[in-house]
Specification:
The chain is about 10% helix and about 45% strand. β6 and β7 form a beta hairpin.
């Protein structure tokens, strides 16, 4: 029965992938952010804080290079801040921050929490000037019916700098799959491959932390192809323990095996050491794996370990949703989407 459930979930996700693989077609405008933003050159970690007083900063127009607004010839670090109000009617939506194009690299904070970024800062600088910035606003960090603060840290190496072009806005995903326990955020991460990485008791304290979902190439692992592991230990709310649950892992490039508390619960594609092995379209498939109840009903925490093999180009858990959802809610969402 367990194997049958895995096949059912995999089939459902493949159908969802075919029905709506283009994220841009599923987004509508929620709130425009074009216009004046608070701005300061320099770099200070306090500028990410929610309660930081930015009202004495300059204001410049976004989108536009800062060189065109009084900072001609400046290369280096700078910060943007903007207050926005998000009403409670957005609780049933997945919101995305569209920052257009930024020259060169950036980190983005929502209410003091780092949520995403593109490129890398010195001393290991890597530009992402030609990458369209579209970052999810995690629901757990949004202050509904209250003031939210978006802070954008930017590094420019030369020529134009800043949030230079695009339609800057918050966008809402249509017919989103809202998880009951969101798991987007920072996970433990390590390249290489050891079988004991799957064990719940394994100590991963010395591993790096990277953002999920986001390709590992954008987080300091440029041009890395091969084996890697993700790990996350989380507390499951008591109200979910009596339900049948599905672990959503979005899209992974290329193939994966997924463990909960050391037990394999599913895989997409096949991990192989053969250089001639063909992965096919596994990287396009949205991952959904049933979690056997004995792994969570009588324990306070669960440890998720994801073994990934990437052969070329983008690698890792690169697109959401990532989280845990009840089986009933998932099937209802799929049926609604299929019937539209």
């Amino acid at each position: 029965m367990k194997q049958s459930l895995h096949h059912i979930i995999a089939t459902l996700f493949l159908l969802l992938t075919i029905a709506g693989n283009n994220k841009a077609q599923e987004l509508s405008d929620y709130q425009s952010l074009n216009g004046q933003w608070y701005f300061s050159i320099g770099d200070n970690s306090d500028w990410a804080r929610y309660h930081y007083n930015h009202f004495e900063w300059e204001q410049i127009h976004v989108p536009s290079a800062w060189e065109q607004q009084g900072f001609n010839g400046y290369d280096g670090f700078a910060w943007y801040r903007r207050e926005v109000k998000i009403t409670s009617d957005a609780k049933n939506k997945r919101l995305w921050l569209d920052l257009g194009y930024i020259d060169d690299a950036d980190q983005v904070y929502l209410n003091g929490e780092l949520i995403d970024g593109s490129g890398t800062f010195p001393p290991h600088f890597n530009t992402a000037y030609n990458a369209h910035r579209l970052y999810e606003l995690p629901a757990q960090h949004i202050k509904y019916d209250d003031t939210n603060v978006i802070a954008v840290r930017v590094y420019d190496a030369y020529n134009e700098g800043g949030i230079i072009s695009g339609n800057i806005r918050i966008r809402a995903e249509l017919n989103p799959l809202i998880t009951d326990l969101p798991l987007e955020g920072y996970w433990k991460f390590k390249t290489g491959d050891k079988n004991y990485y799957k064990e719940a008791a394994y100590n991963d304290a010395n591993w790096d932390e990277i953002k999920v979902p986001s390709p590992w190439e954008e987080q300091g692992y440029d041009d890395y192809d091969g084996m890697a592991w993700y790990r996350l230990t989380t507390t499951l709310p008591s109200e979910l323990k009596q339900d049948k649950l599905v672990l959503l892992l979005g899209k992974i490039d290329d193939v994966d095996e997924v463990y909960v508390n050391g037990e394999l619960i599913g895989q997409t594609g096949e991990i192989s050491n053969s250089h001639f092995f063909v992965y096919g379209d596994a990287w396009k498939a949205e991952r959904g794996y049933t979690i056997p109840p004995h792994l969570y009903q009588n324990t306070k925490t669960i440890t998720i370990a994801v073994r990934v093999q990437d052969r070329t180009q983008t690698g890792g858990i690169y697109q959401g949703p990532v989280g845990i959802i009840t089986m009933d809610k998932f099937i209802r969402h799929w049926n609604e989407k299929r019937n539209k």
